[in-house]
Amino acid sequence: LIGNTVSTQQQASSLLIEDGLIQMMMTLIQLKNCFCSECTQSHSSEEIELEEKNCQSFMSAALWILSNMMTIVPEILIPLIPTNFIQFILSQANDAPVGIKREIAVFLATCVLFFTYERVSEVFDANSDNGSVFFELMDEMISSGRNDIITRCIDALINLALLFSNENSSSQDTSHISYLLTMIDQNGIMNDLEVLMVEGDSIAKRATA
After folding, report:
1. Tens digits of per-residue pLDDT, 152-181?
2. Residues in Cβ contact with 99 at an 8 Å cutoff, skipping those fewer than 6 apart
């Protein structure tokens, strides 16, 4: 209900943010399980596993809500999303179940669509693995077969290219655009985009036959 509401109603999103929704969503996303360390010892492994699955469900829903909210009130939400939270999300991507991985990809791609060059540069720090994790995730999602996710990821890559090329034009610093091209090449993203184009042409030909 919250996710659907914030995806269509700007005023509702603003009010929910004022009421502390973002902090609650970020807390849910970072929960591994809802037991404290002392309580964990008194629960069976099956109970702990079930609780972790519940928390994974919370994480998926919370990411979906944040992604929807980002598209409606980015100017309010972005300042509330710290860089270390983005880094935490990236750190969860590789080992996440496929459902959560999709929501992570959509959330990160949505952030890239609305972040400034400065915010993007903070995330893709040359001294971290954040960039390689992000591009691996984008490549995987481009091959996911989910048109909504594919479109969001492609839009994010286009926006990255625009951000980096604009910065390159103003500062003559080619490091970021070179990095972007290297990551696209290393992760086989162009190959996957070519496959999508071929598949799209094939579907169009069958539809007009």
Report:
1. 999 999 999 999 888 766 665 667 888 888
2. 60
**Rounded to whole angstroms, how far apart are CA atoms 65 and 74?**
13
- HSE toward the beta carbon, residue 188, CA cutoff 13 A: 11
Q: How far apart are the first and last CA of the chain?
A: 42
CA distances from 39 to 10, 43, 178 (A): 40, 7, 50
What does the block give as tokens for 97?
Answer: 């179940």
Q: Quote the CA–CA distance of 81 and 23 in Å, as a whole number.
A: 9
**How is residue 58 written in tokens?**
């919370």
Buried b (16+ CB within 10 A) or exposed e, 23-45: eebbebbebebebeeeeeeeeee
pTM over 0.90: no
